[in-house]
Every structure is written in structure tokens, then in C-alpha cells.
Amino acid sequence: MVAEIICVGTELLLGDILNSNAQFLGQQLAQLGIPHYYQTVVGDNPERLKKVIEIASKRSQLLIFTGGLGPTPDDLTVETIADFFGSPLIEKPEIIEDITQKFTQRGRVMSASNRKQALIPEGAEILTNLTGTAPGIIWKPRGDNLTILTFPGVPAELYQMWRDVAIPYLKNNGWCQGIIQSRTLKFWGIAESTLAEKVAPFLEMKNPTVAPYANHGEVKLRISARAESQELAQQLITPVETQLREIAGLDCYGAHEDTLASVVGALLQKSRATLSVAESCTGGGLGQMLTQIPGSSDYFLGGVIAYGNAVKTSVLGVNLDDLTQQGAVSSIVAQQMALGVKTLLKTNWGLSITGIAGPGGGTATKPVGLVYIGLATPNGQVESLECRFGQTRGRDWIRRGSASSALDLLRRHLS
Amino acid sequence: MVAEIICVGTELLLGDILNSNAQFLGQQLAQLGIPHYYQTVVGDNPERLKKVIEIASKRSQLLIFTGGLGPTPDDLTVETIADFFGSPLIEKPEIIEDITQKFTQRGRVMSASNRKQALIPEGAEILTNLTGTAPGIIWKPRGDNLTILTFPGVPAELYQMWRDVAIPYLKNNGWCQGIIQSRTLKFWGIAESTLAEKVAPFLEMKNPTVAPYANHGEVKLRISARAESQELAQQLITPVETQLREIAGLDCYGAHEDTLASVVGALLQKSRATLSVAESCTGGGLGQMLTQIPGSSDYFLGGVIAYGNAVKTSVLGVNLDDLTQQGAVSSIVAQQMALGVKTLLKTNWGLSITGIAGPGGGTATKPVGLVYIGLATPNGQVESLECRFGQTRGRDWIRRGSASSALDLLRRHLS
């Protein structure tokens, strides 16, 4: 029983978008223990799509399609699949109803072209799309030896439909022979190479395997166990996780779905403390990270985006002499920003960021990538951390890295 | 004369890495005007790779392989291709010499396993790799009706070899019949289906083609022209772009690399005006978007993240009675937030967002997805916009959509 991924979309062939859906599905199939040997990308062209279906349906038993479910004329996936297997398309009133409802919720009226999204092959089940208008299908066009799943190309919709519908379906229909379970530990403040050396023997293990990853300054260790059941896989993973956490200490900030913001949030909630932020070069990115967490209003009261220097002095009360003498990107200004916002918003903690994100604005003494993080503690003390992200990283990287480093500084204080 | 992309690597099937090579090659082929209809990903498995070669060599005349050129036993691309076409492998002394040299430069000795990288099919040319040890090949295994190019999976090496060797080769061998040039128009405030209906006749065009796609509330129209030269392609695109812009009016906010933030930034700069923001449910996301643009400090002074209601009243001067009677998510509070931040930061414009991003906090009268955007204009007038994103979108979508809608409101005022 082998799966195959077929991504439909001329924009993929033209390279207008990166095929992240194939990566997502590949990871998911691996975790479910469903082997897949081929991935195909084909444009919005019925004849070529049919050729792909012909090839894939001979060598694989589970065909997973993404893309081409939209309302526009070039969205042809479902009708082409139906046509290939010689099945008529049936309009499903429940889909019409669902689409109409979604448009109403958004204060819009369903356009005629959306009607085509309600057409699915005879005998196919609806693969419900909770977020978007395009539903997918679950269809066995020729009995039990071939199953077809279709998903929209929009990643967020694919993820939700895969998680809520596809995974349960595949598990209940005997697709998952044994499973591969993974647990990802997350680290901040340690280089991938350094961590890899610290845990070198683990990287040689066969089951579970331990593999390091790094992106945007965050380092991850993925522990993957192959076993008959989730319980048995967990029994393989847990002791390894425990040992890795011991070795890494505070550099390991969490696992799996944890983010620096969610971990900091949990710690603040536990200590019944409140936080405010003062942001210069991140321009709101730190607050944005913190408020990604539902319920963050329990501990995060808000902040000041002090992008211009006038805001630093007038709103946050940064000392003008310090600002002019030390410069906006300095330890003293970072500390005064943190204390200023803590005082203004009456919070227990105040966290600040000021730095040079580039591409312009760097000097010999203060290069692009130099960032100061300020922290004002509940007892009124202030401190700062100097980060040098280097000039090659790029503006987005430096801004994201700055916000993460700020969260990490607070995390270590709260831990 | 059609090309096809074949990416070899089990790590791609497992989703350990994103297939950015396919995107790069897709863009490159489009720019060179070489049509390609299929992309295939296959693991490091000779039998399956042979099946892929068999299929691809029947339907395409230029096969571009990436991956599987390394020194390790699982790198099998070249020998599998040679095997499929029944050609022996020849060890090329110049490759051995090149690899040895590269190791010496790095103060290392060539390992035995690297020897296999010097083996290429009889009659194949070497596709020189300046940076890495793995060379590619240019090979016509059965005369002029099939050309094979192989590249390493390492993106940097692929890019250099493609630029320095492949492009000149393809141009000199008559592969580049004209070029394909694309231009993408970007829209906000109109549904994909609605726009598609407005421009329906254009979607039927053959050259240039016009294709719509949508992501996170943003709709795009891609105009792609095939022509002998960039100039001629531009001549096909320009009139269509003009007509589409006329039909769409202000719903079209820009093209190509434009973002709502960059367009708003340019308009503010043009009018020498300054902006500040007051954010509740977006928690800094609007400021973060604005400051993604280098040089945004020319017009964006900063803002207040008024996540807690106390901050709305104490820092932004929102009227407590209005807040308690109308609620934090209301038109009046949005307006007072906008006016408050404009006054506090002494800017020409003040832009605010207050809404319910969910998943919690929704009521019958104020459901999740209800967002009010406030705008204070240079002459001191205030207005607000009500958005209903629906309850199914999810927190991140609603927050991103809110920030984009706020930028769009300001954009329409500045336009």
C-alpha cells in the first residue's frame, strides 16, 4: 500500500511559489508510516493531469492531490479526475449551503463561479474544508485498490483538512502499518554545531533516531521512533528526550508545538506576572509574537513601538543626553526603554529591543546586526543583553532573531 | 522541445528539506522560454529512478536532474542514468585532479569515496562544478532527441553551474525559443471569484495568459507572455496590465514585489506625511508589517500596542464610558485609538485596529473575526471600517487580514 503526491498548479511549474505542500505531506506520510515513492508536479492542464493520473494509479494505491480546487476556470483537478475515471459530477447542496454561509459570514454574496466547487464525482465523500470554500474529496473510483484524496493548494486549508479529516480516515482504514512517531526538542542560544557535538552519540542511534535541524537561529533535535503503536514509540522516545534535556539544560526551551512566546507566556501566567514591551528595530514584531498565543491578554498588557527617537524620549522617557551621546542603539537606551514601558503600562516586567536591522544604518563601531535587549525586572532592576547577528543575515532574520532573543532572555529569568 | 525536472533524494520524500531547487529551475526555464510540463521527485532508489527516466525520456527532450551526485553510497543518479541507457562509466582524470585540488585548498585529503564522483557515462561532457566536488554531466545518450543535464542537490552549487554552464549551453544549442515573461498584479478588498468574473474574458487569452490566484485574502493576477525577446513580451503584457488595472480600479494595489506596506510607505513618502499605529488584536503585527520596509523610519514614527483595555484609556485616552458601553471592539473605540496615537506621537495619520481574533472572546453580536479599523486623518477627522473575517479563518489569518485591511484603508485615502 503505497501513497503518491500529485501537486497541480502552473504557478508551481513557473516557480512562482515554493512547493511547501509536498514537504508537509511528505513529513505527514512518514510520521504515519505510509510509504511514498514519487511526487509529481503538473500544470493546470487536463490532458497532462490525466497522463499523471494514469501513471500514478498504476504504481500507487493512495493518490493525494493538492491544488486546482478553486472557483476559477483554470481549477480543474476534481473534474479531470472524475473525467479520467469516467464518472459524472454531482452538485452537492450541502456544499452550496456551506459556501453560501461562509460568504454571508464575511458579508459577501456567493458568486456563480463558486458553484463549481460544489461538484464532486458520483460516489465520492466530501472532505470538509472548515476554513476555505473549496472542499476536497475522498473517493475510491475503482473499488478498494485505489483511494483518492484531494486538497486545496492553500497551505492553511490543506493543514486543517489533513489533520482533522485525512489522518483519522487513514488510521481508521488500515493505512498506518506501524507508525513513526517524532518528538522535536527546541533550543535557543546554542549553535547547531555546538549542540551536535554535545549530543554526538545520540546522532548515531538507529531507533529512535536523533537528527538536528536549524533555521533562523533556532536549533531543533527531532527524535523519531518506529514502532507498532504510539505507546511503544513513546517508550523509545521518552528516555532519550530526558537525557537530551539534561545535557542541554536551559538551552532547551521546549518541545513540539512550544514556541518561545508560548513558553514565556506559561511562565508569566504561572508567576501571575504581567509584561509590556518597547520596540525599536522590531517595530512590533515582539508584541506580534507574544500575541500569537491565544489568551496572551492574561499577562501581556501591550507596549510602545518607539521606531522614531522622539517616541523613545517623549513616550518612554529615555534620557535625551544618553540618546545623543550613546546613540539609540546602546545598552543604556535599551535599559531606559524597558524601564520606561514597564512604568508607563504598570507591568511587572518590561522588555525592550533597539538595534540596527539594516540594510542601511550600520557603522564601523555599530554594524548592521548589532542589537541591544533591555529587561526591567519586577523589583525595578534593569539589565541589557548585546547581540551581534552579523551583517550577512538580512533585515528579516535580524528582526526575528532580536524578538526571539528578547523572549529567551525573559524566559531564562523566569525559569 | 520540452524540458522536465527530476529531483532525486529520499530527504525530499521525507520532507526533511524543502524542494527549492525545483522552484529555481522552474523560474529559470520560464525566463529562458523553455516549456516544462512535469516535475518529479523520487528517492535514492535505482529501480524507481529508472522508471522515472523511462517515463520522462518518452515525453520530454531535456531532462534536468538534481541530487544524488554526492560521494556517499546512496548517491546513485549518474550511474543509474548510465545504466538505464546501457552506457559504461568512465573515470575522468581531470575530475580526480579537480577534486584533489579542492581538498588540498581546504587542507584535507580526498577520501576514497570521492573517486566515484569522477565516473561519468561514456560520451558525456563534464558540467563543471566550481564550488563543490560533485561535477554534473551534459549527455545525449541517444542522439539529438534527448539531452540530459545533472546537478548536485546543494542549491548554491546548482545555481552557479546553471548560471555559468547550463544557460550558455542551452542558448547555444537552440533551446531558448523566445522567453516567457510574467507580471503579477496584486489586489486587496475583492474576492478571487468576483475579480475572476470581472476579468473573465482575459482568463481565456492565449498569449499573454492571465491566471488568478489567492492567498490570505490577497488576490493576484499573473500575466505571462511568450515572445522572442523581453521587449516583445513587455509589449504583450503592458496593454493587458493597463486594461486590468482600469477594470480593477483601486482594488489593484500594486504589482510584482509591491506589498501593501511598501505601497503605503511610498504614498506617505510622496506626501511627506508621518504615520503612527494603535494596535489591539494585532498586537504589533501592523507595525511589524510597516517596518519590514527598509527606510520606513522616514514616515513611520511608531505606535502603541494597546492589548489591555487599561492601556487604551491611560495611554491612548480612549473614553472609559465609551469603552464600557460600546466595548473594546467597537467603531468608537477604534476611532479614539487612532486619534489618540496620532496625538500622542504627533503624526499626520493615526491608524488603529481593535477586534476579536479568537479562538475565544466571541459573542453572538460580536463574533470572532469582527474587527474595527480606525483612521485619523491629517485634518483631524476620524473614521472607521468594520471588517467581518468570519469565524472559520483562524487567529493568525484574522490578525494578518486585519493589518492588511488597515494598510489598505490608509492606501485608498492616500491614493
Automatic annotation (TrEMBL), chains A, B:
Stated family: Belongs to the CinA family.
MoaB/Mog domain residues: 4-172
SMART domains (UniProt xref): MoCF_biosynth
Alphabetized Pfam families for the sequence: CinA, CinA_KH, MoCF_biosynth
Full protein name: CinA-like protein
Species for this entry: Planktothrix tepida PCC 9214
Stored Gene3D superfamilies: 3.30.70.2860, CinA-like (3.90.950.20), MoaB/Mog-like domain (3.40.980.10)
